[in-house]
Amino acid sequence: MPSPDEILNAKILVVDDCADNIDLMIEILRDAGYMNVSSTMLPEQVCELHRQHCYDLILLDLQMPELNGFQVMKGLKEIEQDGYLPVLALTAQPSFKIAALEAGARDFISKPFDLLEVHKRIHNMLEVRLLYKELAQYSKKQQELALHDPLTGLPNRRLLEDRIATTLQHAARHNRKAAVMYLDLDGFKPINDTHGHATGDEILKQVAQRLVNSSRKEDTVARVGGDEFVIVLAEVANVASAQEPASKLIEVVSEPYKVGELTLNLSTSIGIALFPDHAQDVNQLIHMADLALYDAKRSGKNRHCVAQLPLAPDALDGATPAVGVGAAQQVTV
Ligand SMILES: Nc1nc2c(ncn2[C@@H]2O[C@H](COP(=O)(O)OP(=O)(O)OP(=O)(O)O)[C@@H](O)[C@H]2O)c(=O)[nH]1
């Protein structure tokens, strides 16, 4: 529930074409302790002001000569991002009350003002508005948490799959390639075993930071398991343009790590798969990169391997096909 202080600090805009009405409403609000009140006599400015200041409450006169309150609400509806119109309509016309509610106002106040009613309605409306904002923020935070790894803050597998899907759609539309790099640290378990889990966690955070710092803004770096990371490269011209960043990442990860007094070393192996060459859908592409990673591990670690192109059907005559990759191309750094 919003605190009394939060309610008194809410941002309020008073809109009326009559200066006396504005002065009166501002006096009522200031007397009640509201600290963040502004006003305008120009209804055509309301949408722009709301866009800039995102008011918690707009006290809106319905009868104004140039642009009436109903027209202002129509404009506000178009810009209100979270679908909540924080409008309290002010009207001397009984017949306008229901029309105002139908037009999107949350409530109304009748003119001439009944002070007690004004205070109650404003307070109630702000309470609901701030509660709505809290809920919206909470739900956004929950969504963030559901899509990110809590240790490193990187996207998790769910968000990664989404990002790959978007990257592939874009690549397909523009007839471009994209690449998925699957990284698994080499010799991470002994660090945990020798120096403890907290040190391991610190290393994972530093690795994550290095991967992000060494990637382009448009690429996605995700943590998909204990010491496993996936990087999605958009707009890749050919295999070489994925191998080059892979070599750079291998170098960057093998720089020494400082954790307290300790200086620790580790390396990483990387499997690379290209869209559309090695696979055309998200999970298959990750799978191909994972198989190439397995080859990099098996052939000595601290290197990258590229997935094998699928064999043409006539090359399989009489042979048992390998699953996914055969002998992947490997590069030791
Ligand atoms: N500190 C820490 N360790 C984790 C976390 N998640 C998984 N691990 C550990 O990470 C290790 C990953 O195992 P492996 O990949 O087999 O270890 P490795 O020594 O790197 O093995 P290779 O890949 O063959 O070099 C396991 O010991 C897990 O317990 C985590 O969040 N924090």
TrEMBL record:
The modification 4-aspartylphosphate is found at D61. Keywords: Phosphoprotein. GO terms for biological process: phosphorelay signal transduction system. Residues 176-309 form the GGDEF domain. InterPro entries: CheY-like_superfamily, DGC-Regulatory_Protein, GGDEF_dom, Nucleotide_cyclase, Rev_trsase/Diguanyl_cyclase, Sig_transdc_resp-reg_receiver. PROSITE patterns: GGDEF, RESPONSE_REGULATORY. GO terms for molecular function: catalytic activity. Residues 11-126 form the Response regulatory domain. PANTHER family: DIGUANYLATE CYCLASE DGCT-RELATED (PTHR46663), GGDEF DOMAIN-CONTAINING PROTEIN (PTHR46663:SF2). This is Diguanylate cyclase. The lineage of its organism: Bacteria, Pseudomonadati, Pseudomonadota, Betaproteobacteria, Burkholderiales.
